[in-house]
Design a protein that fits this description.
heterotrimer; A mainly alpha (288); B alpha/beta (235); C mainly alpha (332); A: 288 residues; mainly alpha; two-stranded antiparallel ribbon; 11 helices; 3% strand; C: 332 residues; 14 helices; globular
Chain lengths: 288, 235, 332
Amino acid sequence: MSGEVLLQATVQGLQMGAIYALIALSMTLIFSVGGLLNFAHGDFMALAMYGALALYQSFSLDAYAAAPLLFFGFFLLGFLMFRRLVQPVLAAGVLAGAQLTLGLVFVQENFLLMVFGGDYLSVPTVLSNKNLVVPPLIMPWPLLVGSLLAVVLAAILYVVLMRTDFGRQVRAITQNSDAAALMGIRIDRIQAIAFGIGIGLLGLTGAIIVAQFTLTPAMGLDFTLIALIVMVIGGLGSFAGSMIAGAIIGVSESLGSLLYGGTVGAMIPYAILVLVLLFRPHGLMGEH
Amino acid sequence: MLEISGLVSGYGRISVLHGIDLRVDKGELIALVGVNGAGKTTLMKTIAGLIRPTAGRISFEGAEIAGEGAERAVAAGIALVPEGRMVFPRMTVWENLMLGGVHPRARPYREATLKRIFDLFPRLAERRDQKAATMSGGEQQMLVIGRGLMAQPKLLILDEPSLGLSPLLVQETYGALRKLNADGLTILLAEQNVKLSLAVSNRGYVIENGKIVLTGASSDLAHDPATRKAYLGRL
Amino acid sequence: MRETRLRSSAVLPWIAFLAVALAPLMMSSGWTNMAILTLLFVHLCIAWNLVGGIAGQFCIGHSLFLAAGAYTSTLLSIHLGISPWIGMFAGAALAAVIGVFIAWLSFRYELPPLSFALVTIALAMLGFLAISSIDFLGASRGLTLPVRGTPAMYQFRSDTTYYVVILIQVIIALALSMWLYHTKIGLYLRAVRDNERAAHAIGVPVLKYKMLAMAISAALTAFGGTFYAQYLQYVEPHTFAGINIVIQIILLTVVGGSGTVWGPVVGPLLLVPAGEWLRHSLGGSLPGVHLLIFGVLLVVVIRFAPDGLIGAFGRARQAWRFRRGVAEAATQ
């Protein structure tokens, strides 16, 4: 096998890794809100991708132009969902919350199946089927743009969490919610906003990567699992950790399927997850 | 300033406080003394809005705040420095202090207050960018007091600020409290350390089994054999 | 008085359950299929509940056990001509070994609850991907059981016989679960669920009981897997090793009330027929609509009764008793 092919696969893996990292960071944000493990994470993104499809079909709106729209729409969805659904269930415990999101997987997948049918679909965009050729590399524009945007968005999210009052309040609630209440922080509201941003980011992410994927109603679960893996390996809430973990997973998946076939490529992330959970339970860069 | 009457409060169905009456006037430094389990922490938490009382009134500057929640108490100008130094462990000293002043009422004055706090506790200025979890107990105690002050309180409530500190640090902490009070801050101090808290305060209350059993000027209480009895009787 | 009431509260659910369970025997064959599916889920939910509910270990890896039961018995039947009646025990043994290994892993590495869930998901996915790619296991095409047509080879002419088989399995599983719940073992498991460290501190042999619960749960799930494979006469990875079926098992248990004896019975007993009915009446019009309604139903129950229907029923009964008590006190 030539070095060029390996290079090509590595670059593609890194690009996928950036996208994985962003999805994992929004999952971490949601996890930091009362410890909710969101099994419907990828399904929200699938919903956004189909949303981009619907906007294209009805208004010929390009997915990249629809991205801000989907962000706000999903922010609202997340905000309301937290208030009406997630928060009351989380009050009964973290496991009840996780079980609720399992139920949401069911709802969203079948909603998509009902509205759009089970066939494979794709969303044409301005960048679809165009490649950037930098010999010896051939990079699909949708993946390149998607990964660059993912890095930028992840950086923005990180700055918001680490450098703003809002971010400090989110972290304060995670670290000691009683003390946060004593600061006069409105815990309910901050949590609802944080949850809304997490879901909103999924709306945005779905739109900017939709050109790279073929849509099927059940595609969400794979994204959820990858996000879980990257989140855990990166260490909860670590920006650098998530980026590195995303890169590791993206590259190993890409090289694994190139060298040993698709099944082995798909197995590698799970194997890494088991090993990390057993031997580095706080992730590669995580804090205790 | 703070007027509490007939306050009944506790956890779930279990009442810890059985009808508390207590008053704090502007500019006073009041000590609330009692043994472990007498109900001091429950009273402090109820005033700060963390626990909803089952009966009674808490009025602060004429407004009723009982059971209105912690956000309401902070908005009214009450800051509680909790027992056990509840710092935000994975945040820096500066971030902890910023959070203390995150409420809209305090936010505009944050920079100025921060300077005052760094003057009061120079140690915190030195440790500005250190994670709170890595600091000593005394430094963490300074941090939570500073964080409480960041909220621009009219009334500062402290729950056991001397607990677990070395005698030297206790002196330092109490020195700071006396100074804050001299500058006009009203303080309510809950303490097991009777001698020390009665020495710095104007007036005192003795709490036993969820009831106020004795009250008066601190100098009188300190020499009243009844204080000693209420206090030592359970030791 | 008190004693008879105690006894009736233990016996009444059994009578109700048997009345419901025996009804399909008198119905037409179209119903039998649905009844079999329902009881299969009751069986799987009871098995999962031992670990996921009573012991509080949120395990998503039960697809491994289901696959162990389905594939082991099928392979033994295809290649060695061994009857699945014997093969099912081999499958259960294999599942129990895997289960004990997972329990040991979680104990050895002190996995917190959510990490345990993640490890079991990862193992389930690894299992699914492996089965889907190994030719000997039929890869993604699956394996078809040879037609032998004799009861000795676990093949029956009538669906009613399959129904009787799964009914007996459910009764055994339910009795086992009840016995576990009310003996020292159940007490220990619930202690582990509520506070593992405290349980350990007061001398509960945590590892031993976690392993025991996992072994029993895994073996029961494997029996379910064998049954399902024999009933369908084929095995394939999506049905038998995918995590979708585990998600269904978990949701049905949660809706009934996880951690209780009757929760995993009530959940599927109500919802599987409801889902099938929705499929029959709506499935043709729009694909997925019945599952959507089904999913919304699940979410609504979790939202308003996070402790499940059994918990909600208990609370309602308590409130009623309280009100009656107040009324009685008022009249006296």
